[in-house]
Every structure is written in structure tokens, then in C-alpha cells.
């Protein structure tokens, strides 16, 4: 099983815009850019999309604004709260310290108030993203909107709505892309497209493991499909950049080798599986 707890971290953090990249400083303690900086960057992108009347990019911008908050809150708030059965998964800092560090604003001093402000901002962004995704009939944006809404309602302790949106996300993903556990359809897509679906699938699994054990057992097929999808990606060479370097034995350095000997390679095993320990 893969690393469903893996956070979406890219270095250097930046947002593309006309005229160059908007560079974002990373918090020195937490491996995240400061959410307010990221939000301001995507608001600039949002303003540009409004100028050129590009609704698809506008929906993407709304989604990124929401996910700016969701990624941090899922990592430092939801997982420690709901996944206590996963040994060893404990952030270096307390939830309160993390939230106060990343989201503190002049008029918000309490953790409860900061979370409420975040949830309102997220909900507004996701409502706009979902509306635009439906109008544009953009399946991937619709899928990401469902996943993000599921994360939001999970953070708000509304398990009923979280399950509803999670089911919608699972249904959308499986009906569009899963023909079988061999994932034949996605094999024909390019590597970037598969990587994008893989990221969304990881978020679906991450939400699933936050639900009660009984619900996880009822949806164990999602985990099976997830493993099968990563196996498919390995077969397609999508994780080739993670392979260890080959160990070659040359005739000059190895007395027992022959000129026609085949280079020796260590067996490859991916080590960033789900961090259950």
C-alpha cells in the first residue's frame, strides 16, 4: 500500500503567472509555504483568469485556494485526530501551535476562531469551484471538488456529509477511469495525467482511513484498487525517478567478471509505503 499520508510538498514553492513565478517562502519549522502567501498568489491568478474570462482556470484557482488550507489542516489536524491507530504518525508540534503559526490573523486569536475563518474561506472557494466545474463539465475538476468538500466536512466533524462527498468522489473516479484493476484506460494516458489522478486517489484513501474501521472494511476494495493503480504506474515507469542507481561491475575492477557480463542491479523496492510505523 502506498503513502496515503504523504503531503503535497514541492520545492521550491511557486505559482506560475504572466511575467514569471511568484516565489513563496517556506515556514522554517513546518515544511509548508505560509498559507496566507499562497492564498494571495492564487488570488492574483484568479484576478488574471477573470480578466481573460477563462472559467476552467478560474475553477482551478478556487480549488487551489481551498487546498492551500485543506492540505495543512488534513496533515496537522485531521490525521492526528482520526488516525491514532497508526503508530508513529505524530506531528512534531501540537495542533494548536501549528494552526496558530500558520493561520494567525490580527483579529483572530483563538484556535476556534481561526478554524472557523478557514472553513468559511474554504467553503466559499469550493462552492465556486464546484459550480464552475459543473458548468464547464470538467470531470477532473469536479472530482477534485468532491474530494475537497469531503475533506472540509471531515474537518468540521460532519461525518454524514463527508461520507456523501467521499462516495461521490469514489464513484466519479471509478466510473471515469477504472475499467478493471489493470487500469487499461489510464495506461494509454500520459505520465502527467496519471500522476494527477494518483494524487487525487491518495487524497481519497487519506479520507477513507479517517472514517470508522467498519466503513473502511466496507470499502476495502478502494485500497485494493489503489495498490493495483500504483502497480500499474510502476509498470509504466512513472516512478522511475525514484529508482536507486545501478551497480555496474566492470572488468577493470572485478577480476571474476567477463566482458560480456550483464550489469548487476539491486532489486528495487519502493520504501515510501504507507507510514504505518
Walkthrough of the structure:
This protein is mostly helical. The chain has a domain at 14-179. It is 58% helix and 3% strand. It contains ten helices and two strands. The protein has helices at 35-52, 55-82, 95-103, 111-136, 139-155, 159-177, 184-187, 191-208, 213-218, 220-235; strands at 14-17, 20-23. The chain has a two-stranded antiparallel ribbon with strand order 1-2. Helix 3 packs across helix 4. The two termini are 13 Å apart.
Trace the largest sheet across and list its strands.
Answer: 1-2
- What form results from the Cα inertia axes? globular
Q: Any idea what the radius of gyration is?
A: 21 Å
Total beta-strand segments: 2
**Strand residues, percent:** under 5%
In percent, how helical is the residue content?
55-70%
Mean pLDDT: 74
Q: Main sheet?
A: 2 strands, antiparallel
Q: Unreliable segments (pLDDT under 50, ≥5 consecutive)?
A: 1-19, 248-277
Number of helices: 10
Helix and strand string, N-terminal first? EEHHHHHHHHHH
Estimated structural class:
mainly alpha
Report the span from N to C terminus.
Answer: 13 Å
